[in-house]
Input
Amino acid sequence: MKGQVSARQEILKGLWDQNPTLRQLLGMCPTLAITTSAINGVAMGLAVIFVLICSNLMISLVRRLVPNQVRIAAYIVIIATFVTVVDLTMKARFPELSSSLGAFIPLIVVNCIILGRAEAFASKNGPWRSVLDAVGMGAGFTVSLTFLASLREILGNGTLFGVTLFPAWEPWVVMILPAGGFLTLGLILGGVNLINRSHEASRRRALVEASRAAAGFALPGAAAGTPARGEA
Amino acid sequence: MKITLHMVATLTFVGVIAGASLSLVSGWAQPLIDANETKVKMAGVVEVVPGGAASKPVSEVAPGPASGDPLEAYQVLDGQGQVLGWAVIGEGTGFSDKIRLMVGVSPDLGHTLGIKILKDSETPGLGTKIREGAYPDQFFGRGRPAPSLEAGPLAVVKSAPGAPNEVQAITGATISSKAVVSIVNQSVSALRSRIGQGEANR
Output
């Protein structure tokens, strides 16, 4: 696996193919809870990126020194340390943002994305690749959360990043409530699956046609007479 | 045996490093966090008593118990040292969690001057209307005279208020509206009994 994957792919996989929120469905708790305004989504995402990069780097550096039996305990202590640093820094520098994200900053400690990447990637790969992985995964999380939060803020409040978009808009309060979070996330997940499925289908069709052409399979009249079967 | 030692040593080392770095960060951040809280509180004091320029804790005006004073209130003065009113901090149960607020009261405790919600976890879009808009405006006396505290505690009504001590609830957030009013009532009566005591002792 190493050597084959370029640095660019290491970052890009987190944005779409292995997007932690939309493909792996990890870290759903903050995803649903704090996406009531776009600024919350960005702030949460940046906090996670910071913790992810620091913990992935640190865990990758100590991966050969930590005995297997206590690795999870050691990882959690390392992650909790970085989360506390973020929490204290936000409280000191951005008190308003910190109060609107509430308990969800300290709860990054138990965010499955962080421990998931530590266990699945950083504990098996070198520091440089672990940082790239963290950047990609963190960016995927941030983009997904910001997108979800923007939709909810626009529909539920008529604003985006606090700027009023439609003065005459009667806000759909439900979009800000938990139900709106589930609705929006469900629709986005459905949309992502739809896009992936149609990509997959067209890729497969292209493959089938290429192999037919190569084997000289193009029977005269077949294209016009028989219905296309590539869809199944 | 060797692996046990290795495990203990690793976790101890990780723990010590983590603890040391956190104490460094905390030493830097804690003073800033405290300063932020004081700043928010002082800004609130001046906000709930319009025109306020300075304030002093209630303990300087009407001394309470030496330690563990349950009442947090400030006497608010204007630039010339004239008493404009009081700002009292109160806490109580809201719809989903504690609500913490600051209410401004006139010097004779006759009516409210303003209100500021310091902390709440009310339902976004419904209960959070206690923070700004028509509901808190009632306590500032915008639109109609501020609710009077002279005839007894404030009361919540669902339609347009008639009596001078009535406050109109937020549609769809009656529990939050009632919680705020009951915290205001408690805070004012706590302040009233403290000031009354202070005058009796004098």
User: Anything to note?
Assistant: The longest strand of chain A covers residues 159-160. DSSP finds ten helices and two strands in chain A.
